[in-house]
């Protein structure tokens, strides 16, 4: 009898990769959860035979219905959707940082997801939570924003300051959700495996921080905090996430996996890019203050501190017992293959 896989974020990169991987497996029915079943991405999935269900990760009742009968659930939240949404600015409390607001929204969404998935324990075999390292924990507070919730005529107490200390929001939110699941829903935690996605190879399309740019002299460079010789777990999210999740399903719950395609330095990545594109791209190290000037409003610091954390503590913060794709018997995409199969002409302003 076919099993039911329910996927959140099915029209995104992670969830979409999971859907594509399981479409190749005949013994699975795939249910994609979306806020808008009428959008083209949802219709495209429906045409492939995916069941489309309307639900919202902010709405418990809709999620409970969407997860009903699931044997496996893949869940991911999106900090950046809230952070980049102009409407979020009007929702900030007095003195509240945008990153703090996006963090709170993401954690609330994660708790709602966990509560809904926990209702499926009679049928559920595996819950896969897409998370990241707890930066505040593993850096022992070194990379920590001290967030003060300032309200009119109110001074925050010491307790407010202690409990509002958070570091790289887009890492820590996901980690806090996993910590919450372990505490609030131990039976669900026992059926859970955690996947930590590495550094997106296509970040150059998403953020100007990770895209090479041309200097006034005509040279091309990539600027970022930290050394170009640090190792990063580059991941071809579209090609490899789903296959790694299949590998995780094969070995069952109770594991944490670092999902990456190839481990290499930024310098090595740029050398491949230069060879493939015919455009020499060099690295120039900048500091956190430079990042904040380039992208004020919290974005520069958010991205910069995540880079500094990774350089000092590694992508997973030094957590022990984390598996990688090789442990799952999963073959992944080389970065040379990824770079060779991307269209770089819009970036370099010429046909390659």
Structure report:
This protein has 352 residues and is of the alpha/beta class. Helix content is 42%, strand content 19%. The strands form 4 sheets. A 7-stranded parallel β-sheet has the order 3-2-1-4-5-8-13, with helices on both faces. A hairpin with a 5-residue loop joins strand 10 and strand 11 (220-225). The protein is globular, with a radius of gyration of 21 Å. The model is unreliable at 146-165 (pLDDT under 50).
Strand order of the largest sheet: 3-2-1-4-5-8-13
The secondary-structure class comes to alpha/beta
Strand content: 15-25%
| Termini gap | 49 Å
What is the makeup of the main sheet?
7 strands, parallel
What is the total tally of β strands?
A: 15
Helix content: 40-55%
Overall, the morphology is globular
List keywords for this structure.
352 residues, alpha/beta, 7-stranded parallel beta sheet, 3-stranded mixed beta sheet, 42% helix
Topology, pairings included?
Elements: E1 3-8, H1 13-23, E2 28-34, H2 40-47, E3 51-54, H3 60-67, E4 72-75, H4 79-83, H5 98-117, E5 126-131, H6 135-138, E6 145-146, H7 158-163, E7 165-166, H8 169-184, H9 186-189, E8 192-197, E9 199-200, H10 203-206, E10 213-214, E11 220-225, E12 231-235, H11 237-251, E13 256-259, E14 262-265, H12 266-277, E15 281-286, H13 288-294, H14 299-313, H15 325-328, H16 335-340, H17 345-348
Parallel strand pairs: 1-2, 1-4, 2-3, 4-5, 5-8, 8-13, 9-12, 11-15
Antiparallel strand pairs: 6-7, 10-11, 12-14
Helix pairs in contact: 1-11, 3-5, 5-8, 13-14
């Amino acid at each position: 009898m076919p099993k039911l896989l329910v996927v959140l974020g099915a029209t995104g990169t992670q969830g979409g990769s999971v859907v594509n991987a399981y479409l190749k497996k005949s013994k699975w029915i795939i249910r994609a959860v979306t806020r808008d079943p009428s959008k083209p991405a949802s219709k495209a999935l429906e045409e492939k035979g995916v069941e489309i269900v309307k639900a919202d990760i902010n709405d418990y009742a809709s999620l409970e219905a969407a997860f009903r009968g699931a044997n496996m659930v893949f869940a991911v939240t999106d900090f950046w959707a809230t952070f980049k949404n102009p409407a979020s600015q009007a929702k900030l409390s007095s003195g509240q940082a945008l990153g703090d607001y996006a963090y709170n929204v993401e954690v609330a969404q994660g708790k709602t997801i966990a509560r809904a998935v926990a209702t499926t324990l009679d049928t559920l075999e595996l819950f896969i939570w897409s998370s990241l390292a707890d930066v505040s924990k593993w850096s022992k507070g070194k990379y920590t924003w001290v967030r003060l919730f300032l309200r009119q005529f109110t001074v925050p107490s010491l307790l407010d300051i202690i409990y509002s200390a958070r570091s790289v929001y887009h890492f820590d939110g996901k980690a806090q959700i996993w910590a919450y699941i372990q505490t609030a829903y131990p039976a669900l935690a026992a059926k859970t495996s955690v996947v930590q996605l590495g550094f997106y190879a296509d970040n150059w399309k998403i953020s100007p921080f990770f895209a090479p740019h041309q200097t006034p002299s005509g040279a091309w460079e990539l600027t970022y905090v930290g050394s170009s010789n640090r190792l990063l777990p580059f991941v071809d999210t579209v090609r490899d996430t789903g296959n790694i999740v299949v590998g995780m399903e094969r070995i069952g719950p109770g594991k944490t996996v670092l999902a990456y395609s190839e481990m290499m330095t930024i310098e090595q990545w740029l050398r491949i890019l230069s060879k493939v594109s015919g455009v020499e791209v060099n690295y120039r190290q900048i500091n956190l203050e430079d990042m904040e000037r380039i992208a004020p409003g919290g974005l520069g610091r958010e991205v910069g501190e995540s880079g500094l954390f990774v350089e000092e503590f590694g992508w997973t913060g030094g957590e022990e017992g984390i598996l990688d794709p090789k442990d799952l018997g999963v073959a992944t995409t080389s970065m040379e293959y990824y770079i060779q199969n991307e269209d770089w002409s819009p970036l370099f302003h010429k046909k390659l």
